[in-house]
Design a protein that fits this description.
The chain has 768 residues and is of the alpha+beta class. It contains 21 helices and 33 strands. The chain has a domain of 281 residues: Distorted Sandwich (Beta-galactosidase, Chain A, domain 5). Helix content is 34%, strand content 25%.
Length: 768
């Protein structure tokens, strides 16, 4: 098989269109959105899909490349760290003696992009012309390896359609001197350091250019800049292979230069075909664990594939020192900072399909406990108060001010007042342990997180004359209302956090008494303090009204102005812009799921029909001013059987990053919304819930979904689930692991590898 034939096969996308995202256009107004949507990432390296061939200096889309964990503080006065852009190694310029060829914009497709989600590849093509004399067709393949995360690959196939002339191809890196200080620059190897944080970056590259099958030697113009010149002719085939190796070091004694040199040497020996094959095999393996199949709704199927593609590309199970920022590695919004998004909206996907990645993300929170303890101590509290915005150290990185929707300078209070983050982290720790049974993690890291966050809440909730413990001066998930008292989400999650910490203290004392003795001594945690925590939990103010079962979102919320949001249907801006900040704060308008989020996370707190009552009260009052909101509402609606409403929320969530109705994603993928789509599908429509002795399924599929199939992992077992709504059957298969229990609509069934479960399901209620 010839090299050319192998390359042309690699450049062909997966034949099944359901696995492919395609964009024909090249609209300058949406160039940044396209660069985000088609980004490639592997949890360590992230590359935006900007134009790489003869890119104009006036191009709107930034060709940024990101390395997870590479933070620096560019503005020493404000001291807010941000993810650093690293040199982009994919740029190519092709020209003639008189100048660059220009891109052809004809009546048909121009510079189309194809994201092959099955293989984790970005494919693109374009045509460059010089009047009627010269024309070349270019096809490109780009990837960052899912098998070996430090490696990237670019393959370029150039076919001369017409013209005999001198042609030049220049391969270069952009941003070699931006944001980083060069310590060492050679032709194919560079080492840089950040200006303030002391981190270092190593980058090595290997290139090969073949003209009609013969390798051509380059002229080295400068470090990371090469040029080839030859005489073109019609029918000529030229192809470029470029392999990148990237490394980050956090310690002075680590040499990233040596690491990338060794990585590049190893991959150069095996060749790009091996690199591509191993990458595709790694993606195939991940899809086998995380794939979701929907029959009857092609749009939902593609939305879920898109979500799982970006979720898979966001995580790196091999680096417990990094987490996933609000835009993953696809854009610069929020400076790469980590929020509660990771624990509440992303961890469920990883816990149930990729527990190694989930463990790594939680170890990041364990490694940043020092910053959380320092934040609590700075404010006079005990335990661990996690940063609302976290970078690499765990120190609070929320900016103190920002420009608001009204263009006025606004104080940002989330860093001090959005305290539910500590309970959110604890929640994810408990969910991971419940689903995986990873006792080593619990003993070595998880227990300490649960205990230190509980200690924070016990010191934070203060007793008052009414005999209750109150948490005053906070912000709940609904960020339209600041400096509020007794936010129901915060207080109930805090109570839950304390109770789980008491559970784990008892468990460690019973099962691992020596480890418990060591940990309790190290934390200076005694029986008297544990008993006081129990008292705090029992007397915590929750805002629940016994007569109705409604949770008041915060003290005084029911007295605020009730604004009819249906009167503002069709608006294109958030409600705080429509009403103004002050009126919004005096109203019951909610930015995002708050009590509804509590209902999603802790449904057992809502007895009988009170879950439905709370959802019906708060759902029409939510303006969905956050990309996190619609997914949480859709999850709860599906659980309650309102599948028509849930499907509408599903579609609205999918549209955040897939629809072209708004120019909204230039700063990066809304990765929490993507996690929310998976949660809506698995926890909502399939009705998955975790129990101490197994899992339970309560399906409520939309009417248009004939079936839903997915894979799960639970405590070392691998399951395959198919909900066949067309025939009202549920099929659960245990592919590996010990026997377990699966409950369907609350009725338990035994499950073994040699004996699957097939049972009837109910027709979903399609009401709203």
């Amino acid at each position: 098989m010839t090299d050319s034939k192998t390359l042309k096969q690699a450049l062909e996308p997966t034949a099944d269109a359901a696995w492919v995202l395609h964009d024909d256009g090249c609209d300058p107004l949406r160039e940044n959105d396209r660069a985000t949507r088609f980004a490639i990432s592997n949890g360590f390296l992230g590359v935006r899909a900007s134009q790489v061939i003869n890119r104009s200096p006036q191009s709107v889309a930034s060709p940024n490349t990101y390395v997870a964990g590479l933070f620096d503080t560019p503005d020493a006065d404000r001291a807010v760290p941000e993810l650093v852009c690293v040199p982009n190694g994919l740029q190519v310029r092709i020209g003639l003696p008189e100048g660059q060829l220009v891109q052809h914009f004809g009546p048909g497709p121009s510079h189309p992009l194809t994201l092959d989600m099955r293989r984790g590849l970005l494919l693109s093509e374009c045509r460059l012309v010089d009047g009627s004399d010269v024309s070349v067709r270019l096809r490109l393949l780009s990837l960052v390896s899912q098998d070996h995360r430090s490696l990237g690959l670019q393959l370029l196939d150039l076919e001369v359609e017409r013209g005999e002339t001198e042609m030049t191809l220049e391969a270069a890196f952009e941003g070699v001197d931006r944001d980083l200080v060069a310590e060492r620059l050679e032709n194919e190897l560079g080492v840089w350091r950040t200006r303030h944080s002391g981190k270092r970056l190593g980058l090595a590259v290997g290139l090969s250019l073949r003209i009609d099958g013969q390798e051509a030697a380059p002229v080295v113009l400068a470090p990371f800049k090469w040029s080839w010149t030859w005489r073109s002719r019609p029918g000529q085939i030229v192809y470029l292979e470029r392999i990148l190796a990237v490394a980050r070091s956090d310690a002075p004694d680590q040499d990233p230069g040596a690491e990338v040199r060794d990585d590049l040497k190893a991959v150069s020996q095996s060749g790009w075909r091996s690199l591509l094959a191993r990458h595709e095999a790694a993606w195939a393996n991940r899809w086998s664990f995380s794939g979701v199949e929907v029959e009857g709704d092609a749009a939902a199927q593609k939305a879920l594939r898109f979500a799982i593609y970006h979720l898979t590309g966001a995580a790196n199970p091999d680096d417990p020192r990094v987490s996933i920022g609000a835009r993953a590695l696809t854009g610069a919004d929020y400076r790469g900072h980590v929020f509660w998004d990771t624990e509440i909206f992303l961890l469920p996907f990883y816990i149930m399909t990729w527990p190694e990645a989930a463990r790594s993300l939680l170890m990041y929170r364990f490694h940043t406990l020092g910053g959380a303890r320092a934040k609590a101590a700075d404010r006079g509290w005990r335990g661990a108060f996690y940063a609302w915005e976290s970078a690499d150290s765990g120190i609070e990185t929320t900016p103190e001010q920002a420009v608001g929707p009204d263009r006025q300078i606004t104080d940002i209070l989330t860093g001090t007042q959005e305290q539910h983050i500590s309970a959110d982290v604890a929640y994810a720790v408990w969910q991971y342990w419940q689903a995986t049974g990873d006792d080593d993690f619990l003993v070595e890291a998880g227990a300490e997180i649960l205990l230190e966050t509980a200690r924070f809440w016990a010191s934070r909730a203060q007793p008052e004359a009414d005999g209750l413990r109150h948490i005053r001066g906070v912000i709940g998930p609904d960020e339209y209302h600041e400096t509020i008292d007794d936010n129901a989400f915060t207080n109930v999650m805090a109570r839950w956090n304390i109770r789980r910490a008491l559970d784990v203290a008892a468990l460690l004392g019973e099962r691992w008494p020596e480890r418990w003795a060591d940990l309790s001594i190290r934390l200076d945690l005694h029986d008297a303090e544990l008993k006081s925590w129990s008292d705090v939990a029992e007397t915590m103010a929750t805002g629940r009204v016994p007569a109705t079962g409604l949770f008041e979102q915060f003290a005084g919320y029911f007295d605020l102005e009730d604004v009819d949001l249906s009167a503002y249907a069709g608006r294109t801006v958030p409600m705080d812009v429509v009403l103004g900040r002050e009126r919004t704060q005096r109203s019951q308008v909610i930015k995002q799921a708050d009590v509804v989020a509590l209902l999603a996370l802790l449904p057992d707190e809502f007895a009988g029909e009170t879950g439905t009552a709370n959802f019906r009260y708060y759902e029409p009052r939510c303006g969905h001013g956050s990309s996190l909101s619609t997914a949480m509402h859709g999850l709860v609606a599906a659980r309650l059987g309102a599948t028509g409403m849930a499907l509408d929320y599903f579609r609205r969530t999918a549209a955040i990053d897939l629809a072209d109705t708004k120019v909204a994603i230039g700063g990066g993928i809304h990765i929490a919304a993507q996690g929310g789509l998976w949660m809506m599908t698995i926890f909502g429509f399939a009705g998955l819930a975790l129990r101490s002795d197994g899992i339970t399924l309560t399906p409520h599929l939309p009417a248009s979904w004939n079936s839903l199939s997915f894979s799960l992992q639970w405590r070392g077992r691998r399951l395959a689930v198919r909900i066949d709504q067309a025939n009202l059957k549920l099929d659960v298969r245990l592919d590996s692991g010990l026997p377990m229990t699966v409950a369907v609509y609350g009725e338990p069934h035994g499950l073994r590898v040699d004996q699957g479960l097939v049972t009837d399901i109910r027709r979903s209620d399609q009401g709203d």
